[in-house]
Automatic annotation (TrEMBL):
This is Serine aminopeptidase S33 domain-containing protein. It comes from Lentilactobacillus kisonensis F0435. Residues 87-190 form the Serine aminopeptidase S33 domain. Gene3D superfamilies: alpha/beta hydrolase (3.40.50.1820). It holds the Pfam family Hydrolase_4. InterPro entries: AB_hydrolase_fold, DNA-binding_regulatory, Hydrolase_4. The lineage of its organism: Bacteria, Bacillati, Bacillota, Bacilli, Lactobacillales. Transmembrane segments: none annotated.
Amino acid sequence: MPSLKPLLIPLTAITAGSAFVSYKLFNFAFKRVDYVPETSKEKQKYADQYYEYVDWFHSVPSEEWYLNADDPNKKMVATFIPAEEVAKKTVIIAHGYKGNRETMANYAKMFYDMGFNVLTPDDRGHGDSAGAYINFGWLDRLDYLKWIDRVIKHVGEDSQILLFGVSMGGATMEMLSGEHLPDQVKAIVADCGYSSIKGELTYLLKRQYHLPE
């Protein structure tokens, strides 16, 4: 009977290589990063305007809110910006993939100028919130239920809440729409959310590594 040993070495190498590639791809897609990835050259031409919004975000009077503040492994962080004049309407803004609350500064300013209170959380695995891995909105939706309750307690039972998200944040709001929401939630705006995590990962990996579907 022919020896199988000559086949074992290449098979072992292929298996190890596949495991390594899978590990790298998983980490690329799901592992948190503590920086905002560089934008495309097309978007970089708006950098000066973007940083004007960021400067405003850090200078406007605001409060830092927390969920699970006493547990560093579960702590969620958000910025609450009260309207210039006392208001009952509040927008809760969900950021995109590998972004954070600061990256939504332009939208925060837009709604602030419209007279809204603004709440911008950092999702799990993003910004100042805890979490080693990105959840693509699925577990984040549960955190947003708690943020909604926090807004109602702070602003009042007569709150009027708008849920707003872009990209992964849009998908998060779509997932959140399937939950039992309090009557204070009056509208949801989901801008360019993805239809499935599989489709989103296919797009991300193809763009980054030029992988086929």
